[in-house]
Amino acid sequence: MIESKENKKIKYIKRLRENKFMKEEKKFVVEGDHLVKEAYSAGILLETFSVKEVSYGVLNNLITNNIMANISTLKSKPDVIAICKFMDENEKLGDKIIILDNVQDPGNIGTIIRSARAFNINNVVLGLNCASKYNDKLIRASEGMIFKQSVLIKELKYFIPYLKGLGYDVYGTDVSDGIDIRKVSKKRKIALVMGNEGSGVSSDVKALLDKNVYIKTSSDCESLNVAAAASILMYEVAKGDE
Amino acid sequence: MIESKENKKIKYIKRLRENKFMKEEKKFVVEGDHLVKEAYSAGILLETFSVKEVSYGVLNNLITNNIMANISTLKSKPDVIAICKFMDENEKLGDKIIILDNVQDPGNIGTIIRSARAFNINNVVLGLNCASKYNDKLIRASEGMIFKQSVLIKELKYFIPYLKGLGYDVYGTDVSDGIDIRKVSKKRKIALVMGNEGSGVSSDVKALLDKNVYIKTSSDCESLNVAAAASILMYEVAKGDE
Fold first, then answer.
1. Residue-wise pLDDT tens for chain A (242 aa)?
2. Is A169:A157 a contact under the CB 8 Å cutoff?
3. Helix, strand, coil fractions of chain A, as percent rounded to 5
4. CA–CA distances in Å: residue A209 to residues A97, A102, A201, B124, B129
5. Cβ contact (<8 Å) for A223 and B115?
6. How far off is chain B from A67, nearest CA to CA, in Å?
7. Running DSSP on this structure, what letter comes out for residue A212?
8. Does B218 lie at the interface with A, CB-CB under 8 angstroms?
9. Nearest CB to B118: which of A111, A145, A221?
10. Listed residue (B38, B31, B11, B134) closest to B74, CA to CA
11. Residue A73 and residue A68: Cα distance in Å, rounded?
12. Chain B partners of A114 at a C-beta cutoff of 8 Å?
């Protein structure tokens, strides 16, 4: 039973909350039975920490409730926390791709990953300027779909031209300038680029794109939350041509 | 220039963060130039607090940066914070209504209000068990649409039968059981009920409903984030019959 905050393993799991350390170690933390099970199914579970006996088939460390309160970032403390290794991503590109350029809110990215899985989008691509893929809020917002969805990290200034070379229609998104998403041919290979919550698609990325799609909205409120907009666009893509 | 945390007004604005006090006083707080302007346009601005001269046409109190850091809940501190009075809601019901039953995340509710305005939904109705309409995160997530959208608070066990009496089709939402939203007649008076993030529509409310709608998704991921799902449903309602 680990009772001390000074325990080496406890210090280690807490440091894994730091972005830089997480990347160096190629490990991240998940909390709660649901996500720990999903991580186990994905084959990336390394070690668990729990307040009561559990058996996930990896080394478990029993810890006190105080230690759990110390290492958990959740308001209502879970029974189990786990260290996982970064996923080996399947780099295979499918016909439907969503690209996030400088999306900063981990909750938005997680929600988009969840909707992407729901609408059979093959790949979610995060630009280098997005929030970290392994951010704990992102993983929770994805409802575990981060473990089932291809999520790639790419430098967009190279990746977008590469996609165009492969014959993808790469669309930017704009509140009104462009083609109504309902009119876009869904039979082709499509990549949609969603931009930052405040400022939209960055000018560097815009310069790489020939066309935009938009969602028809009222003039009272032309812009939507980025995860809401992405979900509607992916829903339309999944629906196919009308 | 107010410099002391012990100043009566400073203590007052901080207490307005408490749900109970906010309701008693029928006042709430907004932060940042964008929302303060929207509150002004809505005619509910009472008094501002700022670190530099501003002129919103109401009493302004100059405060130090330290005091701003003390009363603001934002990471990056705004130049201005305001006290507003609760809005007088237009109780007039339109043909398209979205009802939230026990939706707890203020960000989700704010996002839904924003999408509701974008898709010309007449009324957003919050059950008594939802997060507070005047929660600061909700207001920020709504991007100021809280000031432009009818948002009513109702006891759903009375309000839903009332709507049915008025001839509305009141639909629950379920991951798969029900009618595909694309097949629902949009010409009729429609109310959609969205449920809690974890547990969906509550059993009490379900008992009042005759039918559900669903969004077609992959079997890998049947459930969507509630704001994403609501946005897609409202988008379909706005689109009309196919």
1. 999 999 999 999 999 999 999 999 999 999 999 999 999 999 999 999 999 999 898 999 999 999 999 999 999 999 999 999 999 988 999 999 999 999 999 999 999 999 999 999 999 999 999 999 999 999 999 999 999 999 999 999 999 999 999 999 999 998 778 999 999 999 999 999 999 999 999 999 999 998 999 999 998 888 999 999 999 999 999 988 76
2. no
3. 35, 25, 40
4. 15, 16, 10, 37, 45
5. no
6. 27
7. E
8. yes
9. A221
10. B31
11. 9
12. 221, 224-225, 228
Residue A119 touches chain B, beta carbons under 8 Å: yes
Distance from CA of B226 to the nearest CA of A (A): 10
Cα A16 off chain centre by = 18
Return left, alpha or beta for B61; rule: phi > 0 is left, psi -120 to 50 is alpha, else beta: beta
Contacts of A225 in chain B (CB under 8 A): 111, 114-115, 141, 143, 227, 231
Six token digits for residue B1: 């220039």
**Assessment of whether the complete model's pTM goes beyond 0.90:** yes
Written as six digits, the tokens of A183 are 């009119």
Q: In 3D, which of A3, A75, A79 has the Cα closest to residue A37?
A: A79
Q: Taken in order B30, B32, B35, B39, is the CA torsion positive or negative?
A: positive
